[in-house]
């Protein structure tokens, strides 16, 4: 299924419903959203621009998503045996001025067993009133050539079981520890920060 506006045409969608576009398709279905401007109702609690509830592949291309409680909340149901895990492709899209919540710009997560994969390319995630991109349980997210700036809390936030974020080919920070070559270790960012703090404590003790 494809919902698209012709190039050069301003196609704006807005309404008073809590979810502007809800994607609830089959585990092998391909869904594409292109050239759309999605505008939320200011301060409408819990309104979502794009809710991904079920799909095989979801592509969001050249869209603007702004003014919602959460810009995009992307997850998926149980994947039947023999089907590939769900995949999300977001490209050339602006997600801005969304209000509250984990990943108030874009959140990717999965409550059901198995991974969900997302690719975010050439996007701008700006001025969201919490996190720009939230990576939750079992989400594997790769971000390339994109900007997440001016968000109230974090540009990118990773939290949950099996959550992974790769920025321009480099693994991002993560909470607690993960097995690295068979050894549980914190992320290199936190290991470095802890080393700096320990060094300063030892220095001022002397």
Explain the overall architecture.
The protein is mainly β and 206 residues long. It has one helix and 22 strands. The protein has one helix spanning 188-205, and strands spanning 2-4, 12-13, 19-24, 30-34, 37-39, 48-54, 57-61, 64-66, 70-74, 87-91, 94-96, 106-108, 116-121, 124-126, 133-135, 139-144, 147-149, 156-158, 164-167, 170-171, 178-180, 183-185. An eight-stranded mixed sheet has the order 1-4-7-10-13-16-19-20, with no helix packed on it. A hairpin with a 2-residue loop joins strand 19 (164-167) and strand 20. The longest helix has 18 residues, at 188-205. 34% of the residues are buried. The model has no long low-confidence stretch (mean pLDDT 82).
Jot down its keywords:
1 helix; 22 strands; mainly beta; 6-stranded parallel sheet; single chain; 206 residues; 8-stranded mixed sheet; 9% helix
Q: How would you sum up the major sheet?
A: 8 strands, mixed
- The class by helix and strand makeup works out as mainly beta
Percent of residues in helices: under 10%
- Proportion of residues in extended strands: 35-45%
Report the radius of gyration as a whole number of Å.
19 Å
Distance between the termini: 67 Å
Could you report the average pLDDT, rounded to the nearest whole number? 82
| Shape type | globular
């Amino acid at each position: 299924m494809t919902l698209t506006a012709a190039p050069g045409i301003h196609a704006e969608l807005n309404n008073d419903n809590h979810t502007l576009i809800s994607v609830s398709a089959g585990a092998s279905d391909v869904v594409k959203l292109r050239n759309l401007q999605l505008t939320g109702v200011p301060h409408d609690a819990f309104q979502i621009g794009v809710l991904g509830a079920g799909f095989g592949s979801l592509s969001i291309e050249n869209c603007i998503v702004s003014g919602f409680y959460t810009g995009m909340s992307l997850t998926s149901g149980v994947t039947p045996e023999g089907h590939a895990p769900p995949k999300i492709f977001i490209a050339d899209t602006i997600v801005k001025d969304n209000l509250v919540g984990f990943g108030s710009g874009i959140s990717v997560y999965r409550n059901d067993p198995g991974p969900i994969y997302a690719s975010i390319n050439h996007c701008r995630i700006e001025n969201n009133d919490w996190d720009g991109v939230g990576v939750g349980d079992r989400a594997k997210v790769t971000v390339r050539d994109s900007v997440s700036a001016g968000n109230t809390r974090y540009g990118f936030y990773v939290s949950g079981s099996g959550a992974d974020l790769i920025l321009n080919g480099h693994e991002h920070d993560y909470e607690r520890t993960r097995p690295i070559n068979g050894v549980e270790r914190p992320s290199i960012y936190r290991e470095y920060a802890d080393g700096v703090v320990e060094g300063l404590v030892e220095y001022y003790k002397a």
